[in-house]
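Worked example 2:
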Amino acid sequence: MDEASDYRCWDELIPDALALIFRNLSLQEILTVIPRVCKSWGRAVSGPYCWQEIDIEEWSKSRQPHHLDRMLRMLITRSCGSLRKLSVTGISNNSIFSFLVEHAGSLENLQVPRSEISDSIVEQIAGKLSTITFLDVSYCNKIGAQALETIGKHCKLLLVLYRNMELSSSADQFPLDDEARAIAATMPKLKHLEIAYHRLSGKESVLKILSSCPELEFVNLTGCWNVKLDSNFLKEKFPKVRVLGLIY
């Protein structure tokens, strides 16, 4: 047997296969080390193959807004419209959010907690998020019921919504029942809902969600102190739903 056959030609692997391997590396290694190995690896990380799923949530937590902005624009551009998942925290302005949506027509999973996005920008771009099935807008204090209603009207495939809040956030200073009503009115296909630490005035808005979203399997009501639900009632009326929170 030819001695050369004992060696694998890693540089001849197709880009899709290389992308699967590179997912096990850190962001820094993919961007700075891999391109120096050989030309084929450099082409793989410069093209869309490695950027169909972008998870920089941990990296973004310790970065300045302008660094995060530059990184997002570079990676989203490299995805060439094939981006399916983005996980990042702390988007600091509407412009980068708008850029994301303009260049991500195949997006299915969008996680942007603690981002400074507004109701107005959500209204402008929600029509281009029609493929979204998973959305995390937790701790985004500049959006409210208006944005959620717009999302629900345009994102008909939405199955998972994270809209958790923090006790220390400014949104805790006023009731958020209008957000719960917006969810109930526009998101009938939800299967998983997290609205922990929402300042709800009572159980009525939660019951409206449970009644209007027949496919729900899980609801997180942790910290919704004014919502008191009877466990026997839930088992009788909504047997498919597991509710985490204040159950009596």
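Residues 1-5 have pLDDT under 50 and may be disordered. The chain has eleven helices and eight strands.
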